[in-house]
Amino acid sequence: MSESNPLLTISLLSSGRSETIERCLSSFDQIREKIETEVIIVDTDPGHREDVQEILRRYADQIIPFEWCDDFSAARNAGLKEAKGRWFMFIDDDEWFFDVTPVADFIKSPVSDKQEWANYQTRNYLNEDFSKYTDAWATRLVKLNKRRRFIGKVHEYITGIDGSPYLVDAMVGHTGYIFKTDEEKSKHDERNISLLQKAM
User: Fold this and answer.
1) Cα–Cα distance, 140 to 11 (Å, whole number)
2) Residue 12 and which of 29, 32, 154, 187 are 20 to 30 A apart at CA?
3) Cα-flanking dihedrals φ and ψ of residue 71, to 5°?
4) How large is the C-alpha radius of gyration of the chain?
5) pLDDT tier at 2 (50, 70, 90 boundaries)?
6) Measured over all CA atoms, what is the biggest interatomic distance in the chain, rounded to whole angstroms?
7) Is the pLDDT of residue 200 over 70?
8) Contacts by 55-59 with C-beta closer than 8 Å and gap 24+?
9) Which residue in 181, 78, 171, 64 sits closest to 124, CA to CA?
């Protein structure tokens, strides 16, 4: 990234997933070649594993240590606060772009001047061989302004969005709904229920 303000800030939550983090970060390579992009990583990993840290340092323009407080919005807002891009995109370390160039093409195009936000698709894999999945449009790309803020302890979203989204023909894969055991799935569900109860 140059010293001038970038066109895009990519903000990533890292939770220490060594098996997926590099796949996520390397999927940004094409967009970084096409437009000025900064990558901000909010590091929520309490153990700060050295193997993961080495990967983060290789790809990040800025790493923000964040003490996890059972609040996804607080973590997202830590990255949003430091963002300098004209556009802001957020992602998790268990996601990756199949082809990120449509995002770059959109941001470079005159169409983006008239848009406030855009959606791309998420493919949520449900098993380890990727044979089962669901697809959904996700609001993960917004033009920055002072009204933007994340709210919600879980399944967080951005406030201050008006009008209709532009649909970008890009897709990310997501492995966060693949559970090896019923116990693993139960722990995930219990965490979300607990966060929702706190929010209420």
Assistant:
1) 10
2) 187
3) -155, 100
4) 16
5) very low
6) 49
7) no
8) 55/18, 55/21, 55/22, 55/25, 56/14, 56/21, 56/25, 58/25, 59/25, 59/26, 59/28
9) 171
Report d(CA 111, CA 105) in Å as an integer. 10
Query: What is the full DSSP assignment across 23-48?
Result: HHHHTTHHHHHHS-EEEEEEE--TT-
Tell me if residue 74 falls in helix, strand or coil: helix
Residue 64 φ/ψ region, left for φ over 0, alpha for ψ in the -120 to 50 degree band, beta for the rest: beta
Q: Give me 167's structure tokens.
A: 């649909």
Instruction: Give the count of beta carbons closer than 10 Å to the beta carbon of residue 97.
Output: 22
CB-based contact 7:35 (threshold 8 Å): yes
Ramachandran category for residue 115: left, alpha or beta (phi over 0 → left; psi -120 to 50 → alpha): beta
* pTM of the complete model: 0.92
Q: Is the dihedral of CA 125, 131, 137, 142 positive or negative?
A: positive
Pull the structure tokens for residue 159: 């406030």
Higher pLDDT, 170 or 188: 170
DSSP 8-state symbol, 56:
H
Q: Which residue has the tokens 């830590």?
A: 78
Tell me the per-residue pLDDT of 112-159, one tens digit each, with 9 for 90 and over.
999 999 999 999 999 999 999 999 999 999 999 988 999 999 989 999
